Each structure stands twice: as C-alpha cells, then as structure tokens.
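Schema walk-through. Below, the input block comes first and the output block second. Nothing else is stored per chain. Lengths vary across the set, and this one has 1312 residues.
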Amino acid sequence: MPLRASFAAFTDPDDQKAVWTEAIKTYIKEKMNVDAQAPKLYGFIWQYLSIGSIEEIKQHKDYGTFSNDKDPVAFGKRERFDAAHKSQEDAGNAAVALDDQAMDFFKGLDPVRYSDFRATINNQMELNSTIKVTTNLDYIPPPTIPAEKSQPGPDPKIADVLVTAEAVRTSAIKNTEGENSKAHVTCFKCGHQVNNAVDENLKVGPNEILLDNQADISIIRPHLLEGIKDSGNNIKINGVGGLTLTVSKTGYLPEFFQVYASEDTLANVLSFSDSEQDATAPEFFQVYASEDTLANVLSFSDVEDLYPISYVAQTAFIVHLPDRNIEFKRRGKLYVAQWDQVAAMLATVQETESMYTKAEVKRAKEAFEFIKNSGYPSSDALVRMVEDGNIMDMPNISRADIIRAYDLYGMPVEYVRGKMTKKHATRTRYEPFLRDNTKDQVLYTDVMHIDNNMFLISVCEPLQLTLQTHVKSESADTLGAALQSHIQVLREKSFTVTCVHVDPASAFQALRTQFPGTEIDVGGARDFVAKVDAKIRRIKDTYRCVKAGLPWKLANSRVKDLVAYSVSRLNLHSTTSLTGVLSPRVLFTGMKPNYKKELALAFGDYVEVHNGTTNTSQERSLPCIALYPLGNSTGSWLFWNVSNRSYIRRSHWVKMVTTSLITTAMDGDAAQEIIPASPVGVADTATEEEGTEETDVPPLQHHEDDDSDSDDEDEDDDEDEDEDAEDEATRDAAPPVRRSDRIAAGITPPERMTLASRIAAGITPPERMTLASKIDRAMVLATKVREDANEGTVNAVRVELIQLFSEMSALLPVKNVTTASEVLNAIMIVVEKFLANGDHDKWKGRLVADGRSQDRDLYPNKSSPTLAIHSLFTVLAFYAGLTGYLMSKVDIKGAFVQTPMTGPPVYLRMNKKIASQVVHIYPEYREFLQPDGSMLTQMLKAMYGCVQASSLWFALLTKLLFAEGYVASETDRCVMRRESGGLIFCILIYVDDLLIFASQNETERIRRFLTQAFTTITMSLGNSISYLGMQLLWKDRCFIVDMDFYVRQTLKDWMHLPVKSNPGTRDLFKINETSPLLTEKRRQLFHSTIARILYLAKRIRGDIITVVSFLCTRVTKATEEDHVKLETLLGFLKRTMTQKLYLNAITNRQLLAFIDAAFALHFFDSKSHTGVVITIGGVVIYVSSRKQKCIAKSPTEAELVGLTDNLGLVELFHEFISFLFGQTIPLPIIYQDSTSVISLVTRGGGVTRTKHMRARVNLGKECFDEKRALVQYCNTKQMIADGASKVLEGKEFIQFANFVQGLRIAWTTGGR
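--- output ---
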C-alpha cells in the first residue's frame, strides 16, 4: 500500500492527496490483477511438475487452502458447479446426494477437453460396479489443450485420476479430515504406494546422467567429478528422489562445468528447469554433494547457457560442446547419457570395477583366474571350455563373465608375452602430389617454457608446419643449434628458409649474422611474434589436456616426450590458413597417416611391444608406455620401457588396460627425479656443453615391424628373426655427447655446426626436432618407401589392364592404323573409393579414353539417363512399410567394357608409361610397341570416356531387363518394375549400380541372369546399404538415410566456426552493395563449398535448401557479407551434422503438393522465389527452392508463376507413383495459400497485364478443369512450402525442418 509520506515532494496538500489517491487506485488495480492471474500462474507451474513433485506438494499442510484458491481447473470447476447447486437450493428444491452431485459434475465436463478422463471413468465403471466417482477435485486432471511443444513434458499419468474403490475413497476422506498424506494410497499401475511407485524405466546406472525438466538443483556422484571441495555452507535440498538432503561440497564434471558432488545419488540428472547461477562462478554453476542423495542432477538451463542444445523429437537431446556432441537418448520417460562413454579420461582397473556390481566383479575375477589356470587359451577356446560340459563342478562362470573379465582386466599380460608373434610391416603410401610446392618458407620462432623445461618452437609460413626442439638453456649457441636443426629439416625436403622472425631477446640478436642466405628479423622492444605465440598456446593446451588425463604423475624427463606428442598431434590438424583440406604434415611429407598405426594410441597408454621370438622360454613382449609416433612409413612409435627405464621403438604392439602396477611404476619414476627449484637456463650464461640434448632419443632407422595385434595361435618359428637395429634402446641415463668428446674423436665442427654435418660425422642429432623431421630422415634412410607406398596404385593398374586385355577382351593391340582412323589418347586414373560411412572400400584403376576429340555430331544418341534422387526416395517410401522383400545392391564389374562397340572402328593410344605396364604383364605384345614407346589398340568394347559408351551400356542393360519381364517407367526410365504373384519388384539403375527390391526368389533369379550376362557382379544384401553416397538403413518400417561422412568431410575445414541455431536469418536475401568482393582464391573456396552443400541439400537436408539456393546465386560475385552468410550456414550444419532423413512408411496413396512463393525477394532484380514440398502418404519425397525466371508485378502473380511452373512436376509425380502401385492413385491435391490465385485458375476472369500471364492462368484452369489435379486452400501458417520460399526462424523453422526431415508426419492444412 503506498504511504502518503512517500509523496512529500508535492508541497501543495491538494496535489499531494490527488497523486496519493491515484497511486492507491493503481495499487489496488494491480493487486486485483495479480489475484486474478494467480490461477494461470499456478496452472503454468503445475503442468511442468513431475509426478513425484506433485505428490510432495500435496503433502503440505496448507495444500487444501492454496489449491482451492489458486488451482485454475479446480477453482473454475468448483466455482461454477457450486454456484449451480446453490441456485438450485435457493429455488427450494431438495438437496442432492453427494454421489449424485459427483455424477452430475462428471457428466458436465467438456467431452472434448476431458475426453481421456471421461473415457477412463466410464471404462472403470463398466468393469466394476463398486467403483465410485467422488467430488474430490484434487484428482481431476487439467484439460487437454493441443499445443506445439519444443521439448517433451511429463505425460499425463492415470494415477492422477481418482478412480478408486470404497476403501480408497474412505482413505481420501480421512486425509481431508486431518492428514493430507497419500502415502497409503495404492497405485493401480505397479502396486506400490503412491509415493513409492517405481517405473522400471527410472532405473539408472551409477555412470549415467539424466536430462530432466523437473529438478531445480544439480548433484553428481563424486566418482564422476574432479576437484571436490567444501562449498563453505550447508544447503538443504528437497525432492531429490523423495528425500530431504543437506549438502556442502562442490566438484567439477570433466569437460563440462562445476557441479555439486554426491556419493549415494540414485541417478545423475541434467535438469531442464531454470536454476540460478552462482554469482561467484559465472562460467560454471554449482551442484552440491551428499552421501545420502538418491538422484544426481545437473540443471538444463545452465547447460543451455554454456552450450547450444538441439532436440530430436522422441529420440534424444544433443548438447553441442566446442569439440564434440553429447547425446542424451530417450529411455522410457528419461533422457540418459552414459557418462563413462562420454568422459575423456583413462579408466584404471579400480575405476572400471566401480561400474559393476560386487557380484559381477567377483564372477569376473573367477573368470580371469580360470583363464590363467586353463593355460591362457584364446577367448573363443575359453568360452567353449565353459559351455561344452567337459569339466565337472564348473563354477557359475558364463560367457558374459568372460567378456566382463576382458573388459575389466584386459588381455592377460602373460598371454601377450607368451604368444605375441612378429608381423611384417606395411608402409604408408607416398603420394608426391600431396606435397606443398611452395618452396620458400618463413619461420616464426620463439622459446616456450613449460614445467621447468624449454623448447624452441618454429612455425613455417605458408606450410603451417610446427617444429620443436628441447633445449637446456637460452644461450645463443644453444638456440642457434636448435634453429639450425629446424632449417635443415626443411632443406631436406627442398624447402628454403628465407627469413626467421624472432623477438628481441639477446640470444636471437647474436644470431643475426650466423645464417648466410637466411634473414634473422629481430623485432623491436616488447615486440612479440604473434603467430608462434598462438601456436605455443595451442601446444600448451594440448599438453595440459593430455597430462590431466594421465593416471600417473608425469616425470620431468617425460615432459619433452609429451611436448613432442602434442606437436605431432597439432601437425595433423588442417588450419584455416591453408587453402585446402590437407594438414601441414601431409603437405610436408606427402604421406597421409594411418589411423590404426598413429591414432590407435595416445601418450601414456600402457602397451606390450614385441620383443622378438625365439625357441626359448623368453618372454615375447615388454611392458611399455606409449610416448609419440615417429611418423615413418611403417607407423612406428617411441615407447618407454617400464622394466629397464629406456626408450624403445616398435611398430608392433598390443594395447592393454592400465593397472595399478603400471601407475605405481610411473609414479616411482617421477618421485626419484629431482626437479630444479627454479627455471633452468639463463640466457647467454650456459656453455655449449649445456646446450641441446642430443642422446635421449636414438636416431631413426629403417623399420620392418607391423602394427597388427598378436594372434591367437603361434606362427612358424621361421619368422623368429631378430628385430632391426632400431631395437637397441638408448638409455635415458646415457651421458650427452660433449664437444670435447667430438674433438677427441677427430671431428672438428665448423663455427656453426649444421645438422647435416653432425649426421655425417655419426653424431646423434639434436633430440626432439619434431615429428616432421623424424619422418623426413626416416624417408631418406628407407630407400623402398616410394615403391611400397604405391603398391595399392600398382595393383589397381595391373587389375585394370588384365581386365581389359584378358577378362573382357576389350582391347586388341594393332601395329598401325590409317590416317583417317579415329584415335583417342588413353588416361589411367586410380582412385581410392569409400563407403557412405567413410570406411575404405577399395582401390580402383580405370583406363579412360579421352573422348574430348570425338565429333559429337556423329553420335546423336550419346546420352543415357540416370536415376533421379526423388524417384529413389519415392521408391524407398513405397517399400518402407512392406514385408516380404529384400533390399540388395549390384555392382557390375567393368560395365562399359562389357558393351560391344558399334559403328566405325575407334582406336586407343597408350603412352609409353602405360604401354610398359602392358608389356610387363603380356611380353608377347612387345612387337606392337611404336617407335616412341606407345601402343595402339582397337577398342572392341565401349571404353569409359567415349562419347557413345554410356548410351551403349544403358541400351544393353535395359534390353536384358525387358527380356526378363521388367517394364520401365515413362517418367523415369531408370526405374524398372515387374509384378508377379501379387508382389511388385523394382530395379533402380544408376549407371552400373543397381538397387533392387524383390522377394528372395526374385533376388536369386536376378543374380543368376545378371551373372550369366555380365560374368562378374558383386551383390550385397542387407538392411543397410551404401548407395549413391548415401547410407540406407531399413528399420522399423522406416528408411533412415544419412551422409554423415560427407558432412564431416565438408565441415573439416570449418570446425572452428561457432554453432548456429538457424541456417540463415530473415535478411538473408538482402544484399549490402558496399560489401567488398572476395579475393579470387576465397571466391573459389566459397564456390566449391556451396557446391558441396548443394549436393547434400538436394539429397537429405531439405531444411537448408532455401539458404543454399540463394547462396548459389552469389557464387560468381561473392562478397564478405556472403561469406558471413555461408559461415552461418556452416555453423548450423556443425550443430546438426548428425541429422538424418527419415522416410517412413506411407499411410495412404494421396499425393499432396504444397506450392508457395515469396514476392520480390531477390534484391537486385526483384524476382520472386518459389518453394515446393511434395508428399505421398504423409512422407516428404521432394523439396525444392528456386528463384523465379520472370518478374512478377504482385504477390498474386508470384503465386501464379510458382503454381504453373510446377503443375507439370506434380502430374509427373502422379504418373510415377501410379506406375509403382500398378494402378491409378487418387488425383493429386495442390495446396495454395492465395485465394485470388485459386479463383483465377478455377473460375477464370481477372485482368492480366500481359499475354504471358494470361497464358499461365489458362494453363492452370485447363489442368483443374480437366481434373488432372485438385487445388485447395490452406492458411499461411500451415503452408509447409513457406520454409522453402523464404527463411524462417525459431519455432517456425523447427516445424518446417522436422517435417521435411521426416521427424513429424502429420500436418494440418487448416483448409476452409
């Protein structure tokens, strides 16, 4: 209530009274409004409460009072109901019994809004006449009001409805008399008390975290946290699993944020509800710890403040971290993430054991003991021993216990040490074209300090390669030797260092005249080298991350190894400074690293490495710790031998589970070392003897080891030869080679001793020169790298030539041809093919004829059709819900070269290199060599590259299918159909790849006649097939289409961009004419990126088609503004990179087309934009977004142009789908949101400004008059194609995206 004293500023008493009176009126009005709105607020809060929370609230002593006053449902119903009965009593009528009142009230409930409740009551009363309905309105559920929800809320529970027997009714009456608790009310669903009812889906594991929208506090079990400490105060928490807890500790969830820790929580939960952030920790939010809590909770709102979150309807919530995604999958009514799979940490045996029950751990230990006692057989042999019944009194050990034993304790060390065998090394392929051709390099160099160690770091520009060398001090001699090693590393690869940028340290200034031909650019006072400083930060970040995940303390002597590992990993990353997608290491070496060899291990992993095989009882492996990859062609690693504390190199290892013995040994190494109390090395004070470390790592040698795992059985002992010279480990304690020792040996170094001179003198080069330098020197020493690396290419070429000359008889060598003959040049192409999921498929060689010189006019029928993507999706939707069919894919080997050539003879000239390969395989063809070493052949079959080849092949294939009873669609000739016994079979043709839907018998028949016709085919059957770059998964009456690998490849160079919630903004089509044009290099990158995304959008990402269609119009004149729009699109793709297309089973045969247009949307020419979405049986099969070809004068004309441009498309879809079904389907319905356009094309009339528009009106009217299609109205909010004609945002975009991606089938048109 406003006080009059607050208005003392008004000196006039009358003015003061007037103002005060108005303030009181305003206050009373606002208070009445608050009271009136209180039931709405109560209802809003109530709908988001969980069942458990509602029960807790109902136990409050004042629940009856505030429920009656605030509950909008109970309040409104009670008020109207009581008023009706009071008016009846006031009229003098007899009082109505309570039971009759209840039935009157029940029958008066709205039959639509309370339909579920009324149906439940009626069913219960029909089944049991003793059941009564009471007037206790606390149990009447809120009415069902249809609404769009962006996230799932709690479903209505039947336990909310009071349908009780007499005993329960009596209990409810007792509660109203003096006790509100419902602890004795039995839940009909599970038989427990209401407060104790448990849903089986609510059971969660100790390492699972839930995403829940009910909690307002966050708690996590301590074993998932780090840095647990006292929070300084005690906080009381209510409602965690039904308990009241007092908590006082906080902790950090690794890679996430700070949370409160609890030991005995029932479940780890990420809450959806809003919760307040701790003001003292703005970047994190706090969650308390308790030993007695029953649930682990994290607040969703605080997670959302830190990271973007996307929702896949009915499936999962995805939290997008900067470097990866965390997926909370739906299980029952919960959204759960298995945090032990999410957390990036190394699990020791003790940590792993905590994931299982005591009984499971006990049986696993018995199984592991059984492995030992049975003589260390293989896992398969062990399972057979347990299950074949040959052993009496076998303890209760199962197959699952054996698997769990391996999960807990890993492969037995004794097994590895006794059975590991040597493998021949495989080498990484060397590809010279991957090398960077920019020879002149500029270095940015500085000294990095970390953990009492120093390193000279150099970054090459434009190669972007990072080099590092461990140094003992910052003296001029020490840094000069390290810098010389960096320069020499680049020189060995023919790179020239023209300039070195350094800071103004005195040591660097002393080097200005020490490197002839290389400028040492020393900066001014307090000038820092920004490029290398940024790289040093990244090295330190990687260093800290890896160190934090180690289960043991890092020894000081291992710091240099961890830095070398960090630099090796950074050199694998492609950067935005590079124009392409290749990483600095690939550009430097010309070799791509092998995942299994280089990325199967991490620094600090415990492994057993091969130690040679003999006929003695000597162990065949050594316990080691992985340090870093050496980068040679065999994929060797540098390891730390735990048993004798020495370095060792190997290419063959077996990764093991880290045990307490290993952690104890590594901790012991760290404890024995003496760490200097102050930073080592003061600039310009140390001598050369204290300079770069030269002996900790032995020189690289040629390796013959392999990275494959140990076999279950021993191999022949003839492979027990010793390891190469690399096996000689260099002890860490070995003294460095001093200058005096070199002089005593007769080696006099020059003033500035180079790395090359040291190698020539037999002196070990400076240690830790970088992974790149080790790769280079290994390549120099390994003379057979080039040949071995091209083995896949050579084999592919050999296979292709044998196929052409022998298997297919496609080429016939000739000695000469006439001058009038048509002679084409041959080109050999070798590519590595991948499946849609990114897995390697095969190396494929192809001899191609250069058909560019052929006269196109001589071949009028040179084209052949290919399968349309929308035809493929229509067929997939057609078969999604059918049973009795198999999906298979057929690849016809050498399809074109199995097709006979027609017409005049055509010849192929092979160059000297290809001809030499032919002669190597077929020596008898040497006589056909021309004087210049080339070879002429006549093409007997249609070679790839010939103008007429594709047409000849398609004619041959379709002729065969026609003979086998198949009929081609007139709409898409690449879709062949055959009907037999009530079943419909389809064959889809894309050149030589066939996708087949047929019964088992028909599939076998197809295989037989294709094999008979084409000799060699490859047929794949299954529910998951890779086809046309897409992975097709047939599951649960739905086809799931994904291109995850393609998306990852597209985003590989753009992962640094922030994620976006929309692919574009509403002002996408607006253009800033003052924005500068992109450079030609950036414009080409812009163009190629848009082309890749367009390929994706036309297939499975219809949600981004509008933004892509606009950016396609900008590729020739892209500006900085356009580049920002592209980055927004890429940020959205990064957020939704795992999005898939869902083609559900069609529910009916009705074809619907939604056509919409946005008027004058394009900035420069004012042309409109058309969006089209076509569905069959509720499944989206076609989405397009196009700029109109002509300018429309009004929105009506724009809608008319969009409609008439796509009438023919709708009719073609109708014809194609009728072909699939084998009968005419109902007329297609075209939805329009413009009543004026509907009037024009159905009634005619109107005034058209041009003959062109009048023709369009008559075109539409003719179509609808002849009943080739129907047109109906739908309101703009329900026009699906609205999202394809303009950019939508927020909820509107989510609805559009969910629909076109198949995440929501039903759609209400809202027609009149």
